[in-house]
Amino acid sequence: MKSEANVHQDAARFLSQPVAAQPGSPLRVAVYSRIAEAIRNGLLTPGSMIPTETELGTDMKVSRTVVREALMLLEEDGLIRARRGVGRFVSDTLPRIGIERIRPFEEVLGSPGQQIEVKRVQVVRQEASEFVAPGIGVEPGTECWLWESVLLRDGEAIAHLQENVTAQPVSLGRGPAAPLEIEDDGGATLLAALTVQLGRVPGPGECQISLSQVGPSRAKLLDLRGSDPVLVLTQYVRQNNRPFYLAKCLIAARAGHLSIMQSFPS
Prior knowledge:
The protein has 266 residues and is α+β, with helices and mostly antiparallel strands. The protein has helices at 4-15, 27-40, 53-60, 64-76, 105-109, 132-136, 190-198, 216-222; strands at residues 80-83, 87-90, 116-127, 143-153, 156-166, 205-213, 229-239, 242-252. 27% of the residues lie in helices and 27% in strands. Strands 3-4-5-8-7-6 form a six-stranded antiparallel beta sheet. A two-stranded antiparallel ribbon has the order 1-2.
């Protein structure tokens, strides 16, 4: 078994490696991933104090601003906690990784060598229903965005997806609230578009699984009978500790085996 001194040395060596942003991903995400990996791998143990912003910035060769943004994300995700006037520490209990780690549905349903095509049905601004409103943190009747899509694999419809976010100004970070400006290129789900805008998958979140019948209206989109069974995945996502995004995905039996990947965002 390694001594405490050796563990500290291993953590220091791991964190001192320079980081580089991946194409299309902010540098803060690379710093976030490096520290999160150190925590998940036990190099930074629960309850232990992590290096200061200055030390991390010097070791990783990034600015203190980038480090501070990454640490804010880690704190939001429950991996670290701050003690005023003392420093930041690894959380005593880490959040679980599993189905609650939200991913865009094109990733959930895709597989290596098999891409999912997103066919947009509609993007509309409408009043939030009694079901949608609590999932996105608004009162019923408040305007929200609905993105409706059909997901295809090899040209065959395998899922129907409805995604909702508020149309009211929201704060995606520490800054003031502002209207969401999400570009719809017609080829991605709403969650994938939000991931690009935020630089990471929003979260934390959870996914509920149930069985139901597809119903007459969605049956036409999926080329099914209204009484055919479907798997229903309902995603709830929080941002800044508030309900933010809600999605319901009906998956046809022809989609085949659905694997739940236990992975951490990189």
